[in-house]
Structures are given as C-alpha cells and as structure tokens.
Amino acid sequence: MIEAIVFYMFAAVVIASAVMTIASRNPVHSVLWLILAFFNAAGLFLLLGAEFLAFLLIIVYVGAVAVLFLFVVMMLDVDFAELRAGFARYLPFGTLLALVLLAEIFFAIVAWQAGGLVMEQRAAPVDPAVPNIEALGLVLYSRYIFVFLASSIVLLVAMVGAIVLTQRERRDVKPQKVGDQVRRRPEDAVRVVDPGVGKGVEL
C-alpha cells in the first residue's frame, strides 16, 4: 500500500514538473522545474529496484547537465522575446510532430497490452541476492571491458579535441614564460637607481 502511495506521489510530481518546465516563461524557472522532475524520476527508479539508474540520473543529469543549463541560461544574455517571435511560424510543424509522437506512444501501449515481443533470453540469469550495481560492474568490467575502455578513450579524445579547438593564439597578449621566471636572479630583477634632483627615472 505504501509503495503505491509513494509511486503516485512521485509520478504526479514528475508530470507536474514536466508541464511547468514547458509552461514557465522564465528559462531559469524551467531548468529548476526540470531538476525537480529528475529527482522524482530517480525516486521512481528506486521504487523499481534500479538504484544504479536512480543515482546515475541524479549525478549525471542533475549534477552536470541541468546545472550546466542553469549556468548557461543565467550567464548568457539571451533575448527570449526574440526567440518566441517565430513560435507561430513553427506551430504547424510542431503540432504535426506532437501528433506523430502521440501516435507512436498509443501503438506502443496497444502492442504492450497485446503481449509484446517475446525475445530470446541469451544473458545468464542474475542472482537476486546480488545488488544491481554489483551485477552491472561484474558484467561491465569482465565481458565488456574492451568496449568500456574504447568508449573511455573516445571520450578522452573528444575532451582533448575540445580543449585544442578552444586554444587560440593571441598576438596582443604577452605569453608567460615560466622557465625564464624560474631562472631569474634577484640581481637581474632589482635595480637600484639614485636619480638626481629634478630628474626622473629612465626606464
């Protein structure tokens, strides 16, 4: 009984947050509503026993993606009134796309109620006593270790490439030479000058 109450509570908050994310006129408020929806979706995953997906949703989407959206929206001076000016022009295409998505959801529900597809179970059964995170780690670091390492290398290359692309050589800025600064002696850095009366210091 308590599981059903908690499920409907989380589900109601997720739906309300999703609606407010779209309906809010302030983009900062939209991102905050989106974060609330992510937290409640993580609660639903916990009820399903998928604690790895729940923590992944909080760490990745809330801790990285949503916070990044929030900072970008708050830091950039975006004219949202100008962005909304073309809403009426794209309304027919948006309505058609929404109808297509609703039709896909309807057919998916009908197929699921009809029994769905019977897939051949090729994976080995998992011991119910083993937690989901431990079972996923055992499979990820044993059977799919090379795929996991390959994906990490791809992400590393993408990160290095993004850093290289953002590096720009500016000619109007004097670069810092750390080696010259370390090798500098005190007698070369300090010069004692005793100018005469009425004379300035020559640099």
Describe the structure.
- The protein is an all-alpha fold and 203 residues long.
- It has a domain at 1-79: NADH-ubiquinone/plastoquinone oxidoreductase chain 6, subunit NuoJ (Four Helix Bundle (Hemerythrin (Met), subunit A)), CATH 1.20.120.1200.
- The chain is built from 9 helices and no strands.
- It has helices spanning 2-23, 27-47, 51-75, 80-83, 91-113, 132-140, 145-166, 178-183, 186-189.
- α1 (2-23) packs antiparallel against α2 and α2 runs antiparallel to α3 (51-75).
- The longest helix has 25 residues, at 51-75.
- The protein starts with a helix and ends in a 14-residue tail after the last helix.
- The model has no long low-confidence stretch (mean pLDDT 79).
Average pLDDT, to the nearest integer?
A: 79
CATH-defined superfamily of one domain: NADH-ubiquinone/plastoquinone oxidoreductase chain 6, subunit NuoJ
Q: What is the element string, with H for helices and E for strands?
A: HHHHHHHHH
Strand content: under 5%
SSE arrangement:
Blueprint: H1 2-23, H2 27-47, H3 51-75, H4 80-83, H5 91-113, H6 132-140, H7 145-166, H8 178-183, H9 186-189
Helix pairs in contact: 1-2, 2-3
Notable traits:
203 residues; mainly alpha; Four Helix Bundle (Hemerythrin (Met), subunit A); 9 helices; 0% strand
